[in-house]
Every structure is written in C-alpha cells, then in structure tokens.
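Hi R.,

Here's the chain you asked about this morning:
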Amino acid sequence: GLLTAALVGYTNSGKSTLLNALTQGGSPSEDRLFSTLDPVTRRLRLPSGRTVLLTDTVGFIQKLPTSVVAAFRATLEEIGDSTLIAHVVDLSHPKAAEQAEVVEALLADLGLAETRRLLALNKLDLLEASDSGEERPGAATFRADRPGTLMISATTGAGLDDLSTEIDEAVGDFFAVGTPVEVRAG
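And here is the predicted structure, written out as tokens:
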C-alpha cells in the first residue's frame, strides 16, 4: 500500500510547478486561476526509498462563488484520504498571510484541521531577486509565526531536498508505529 500526500494552497502558489519539480512530471503549470481543475496524482520516490502518491489539488480562493462551491469541494475529496498535507504558500505575494489563513479555514471546513501538515513557503527565488536586497514582510512573519516551515523554490529547486526529507519523515512515522495502511485498487 502507498501513503498519500496532497499539495494544497491558494491559487497560483506554485503547487503544479512543485509537483513537476518533485516528480519530474509534466503537469500543466500556468499563472492563471484554476489552471488545475482536476486533481493530478504522481508517484514521489522519497530519500528512504519509500514511495508516496502526491496529489496536486485545485487552488483555493477567498469568497468562492456559490455556483462553483459544490464542484470545488468535489475536487478536494482526494485530500480527505491523505496522510499528509503540504500547504504551499506563495511567499512573494503581498497577501501571503491572508491567503494562508483562507486555506487553513477551508481545510478546517472540510474536516481536515487535524491532518498532519507541512508548510512550504514557495517562490523564494522571487524574494531573493529583489533589487533592494530586502526581504518582503511576509517572509519574516511566516518564519516567526510558524517554526519549522520550509523555504523553497519550486522553480529553482531550492529547498526541495529538505521538503522531500520532511515528507519522508512524516510518512515514516506512519510506517514506524504500524499504522494500518488501506490498499486501494486503481
């Protein structure tokens, strides 16, 4: 049986780019709303040699129109079966903290507040590219408020080895304690 992990985050946080970088996949990755409408799942080989199924989900947005709420929630069903959620945040966005709160609130609404999480602060390359050399305020806020977060760039690969190691350790805990693993057909 394989354990599963889900990439979640606000729209345009870089989830598809991250999935491609971690799995050498070819999923479409575009800078537009809802470029991922259907969950995409790929095998991820971890440093220990274990394999997990990693799913890229539709991007979250604030104040989702009621006409698409049911469809939106249906696309997130994959998350409910996940052993681990990797919350991807676009650290370069001026409203990164607000977007992260929206995602956390929606996860709670979906009954996933207790699912184990990693926080991947993405687009580090955009922060480092600043002409002034100063970090944007979002970076310091996340570091202070959420110890143990991972700073990554799905585009350059910075921090992805650390992220793979953290995923490995998280799923390793499930193997170590003998947690039953449900084997699903397909």
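One quick note: The longest helix spans residues 160-176.

Cheers,
M.
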